[in-house]
Amino acid sequence: MICLVRKIFLLVFILSAVIYVPTLSAEMKITLKDGKVIEVPVSRENVKSIEYGDSVVSGAAGESGDKETQIVYGKNTIRIESAKYGNVSFELGNELGYKQYFCDAKDALIEKCDGKDRCKIIVGSQICGDPYPGKGKYLYVEYSCGEKLKRAKNTQTEIMLLKCP
Questions:
Q1: Would residue 12 count as lying in a domain?
Q2: In angstroms, rounded to a whole number, what is the distance separating the alpha carbons of residues 64 and 110?
Q3: What is the DSSP letter of 157?
Q4: Which positions fall inside the SUEL-type lectin domain (predicted)?
Q5: Residue 15 forms part of a structural domain
Q6: pLDDT of res. 89
């Protein structure tokens, strides 16, 4: 009887390990000047499924009467995945050894660049504010061209060029 209980317990343990589904999370990796790589979390709400094909915008009436827009991105068009503007400070120190000063620039870049094959951005506080006043800042962008992920990094006052392919 004890042997049967052990077998059942083992089976339940194995099944629970197989059925376990990890939580969905994403991080944007940023390489600092000294070569150190930090990871900036991207909120769960920003992680979406993407469909690629010919660029098409189609509308369908929603329940509230508003028009719901679905965009299918072309294989040679820009799709902003994540964007952060700011920098890190090693002066304050915490459990990680640095403090992050970033604002979320994704919405501003989506409005300006999504669906285009080329996009120029003047890097500065007009994107999403000044998260680190008086200090140098960078714009870090991850974008895709079809299924290919690309990264770009520029300092403030520079012009960032995103392009596909």
A1: no
A2: 25
A3: T
A4: 75-145
A5: no
A6: 83
Q: Is there a domain that residue 86 lies in?
A: yes
Residue whose entry in the numeric block shows the structure tokens 């503007």:
85
Q: For residue 26, what pLDDT band results from cuts at 50, 70 and 90? A: low
CATH code for position 124: 2.60.120.740
Higher pLDDT, 71 or 111: 111
Q: How many domains does the chain have?
A: 1
Burial (0-12, 13-18, 19+ Cβ within 10 Å), 135: middle
Asked whether residue 122 is domain-assigned, the answer is: yes
Specify the higher pLDDT residue, 95 or 131: 131
Total residue count of the chain as it appears in this document: 165
Encoding tokens for residue 90? 């090693």
